[in-house]
Predict the 3D structure of the following.
Amino acid sequence: MPTNLYVAWQNQATRAWHTVARLSRTQTGYELVFTRGVTSLLTIPSDLFRMDVRERYSSDELFPLFKNRLLSRSRADFAKIARWLNVMGSEDEFDLLSKFGLIPGTDSLLVYPEPDVISGTYGLDFFVHGIRQMHKEARELCGTLRIGQRLLPLLDVQNPVDPNAVAIRCVDQPVLVGYVPTFYSTDFRQLLSQPRLAAKAQLTVVRFNEDAPDQLKLLCRFACAVPQGFRALNSEAHEPVTDEAA
């Protein structure tokens, strides 16, 4: 399970996601620190969090902003949504947040987990983004995908929104079904740009949720060997803000 979760804010005008904070699980509780992704967003992060983006915050319990993103286990739809997210529902709060946080809130915030890098292998479960913007044929095709079915990642080198964008298509049909979430695209591009690693990388279907909203329809798993010294989410947007940098 992850040690760090990251918070992204979506600009509703451009649909672009910006990573703005990191929540860490510590031996005594939790630590919240803002990341350098806030530097181009003026007062938006401080207005959303009501915190000083230059400070580190510690707490014995989950901060209210995150606790409020967890559904009560007594809700009638808890079991259904847990099934969409591929969790049992009995996990601790932090682990549940790593899944329930993937549901975008009315505040345009989303919480996503850092990938696992274990024994030289990068591992990540993620929901495919952009299904709503795909052609109707692609949306219908998603409904035919089977658990364990292989998909193909494609480097979208001329994407006007994200230069690191990675599209996803089916193996047997040249149809795009969506995109890798932009906050993981730099990792994917770094790994898939190396032919030796890309040749053995695996992108497979974990589940398709017919009755879920588009952002929770298609859950996939990506596994790929990493080179020595590789660091997941190694970008400026994920680096903590320091007083000097601020």
User: Anything to note?
Assistant: The chain has two domains: 4-114, 116-225.
